Amino acid sequence: MQLPWSAHAGIPAGWIGVDMHVHTRHSDAMPKVDTVLDRARRRGIGVAITDHNTIGGAGEACTKARDIIVIPGIEVSSDQNVHMLFYFDRVSDLESFYLRFIEPHLRRRWYCKSIAMPAEEILSAAREFPSFSALAHPFGNGHFRHMAEELRQSVLALIDGIEVCNGVQSHRRNTKALELAKCCNLPHLGGSDAHVACACGHVCTFAPGDDASSFLQSLHCGVSAVLAY
User: Fold this and answer.
1) Quick one: CA torsion of 203, 77, 128, 130, rounded to 10 degrees?
2) CB of 203 closer than 8 Å to CB of 191
3) pTM, entire model
4) How far is CA 112 from CA 51, 56, 157, in A?
5) What is the pLDDT of residues 163-207, one digit of tens each?
């Protein structure tokens, strides 16, 4: 699944590329899950479906994908409007996390509304499962950048990584996210934040692994690279 040109960008042989931030019509985007999977397959990458506060798209992708890596995921917005990405080794763990901690706290049956839980509690809940959490576009959408410093530090103490390249954010905002990740010594990841099919795959996270579990373990170890193309 390694992209044919990735070696020229310094990506070691055997590393795979995964777009870690993709939305579908299960939340606020246009593509069907089948369309996203087909796009990923043609680009030779894996994909994480991270719809807003819902897991229908991720579940469907995990059921249908047979020849590409799909990482079960979700984007959750806390009551402080901090946007976080959560990834799981198994779709069953994603489902348990959602049913126990997210669905009961939805303020409305609507994808983009924040849930009635602070970011720290959501992050702590995810740690009950084999998972990887990441701060999504920290200097873009959401209120992380406006939080009091004490609250920012409490979130950073619990988060596993930072999205340092988001396909819809400006270069300046992504650069600030990268600086934050380096300052906090946190693993780097990136994704397209695709809401249309043609954007899927424009930002990928590369790491060793041949399934969701081993790929996420590489991220935990800080072994990753992010490329936009």
Assistant:
1) -10
2) yes
3) 0.94
4) 9, 14, 25
5) 999 999 999 999 999 999 999 999 999 999 999 999 999 999 999
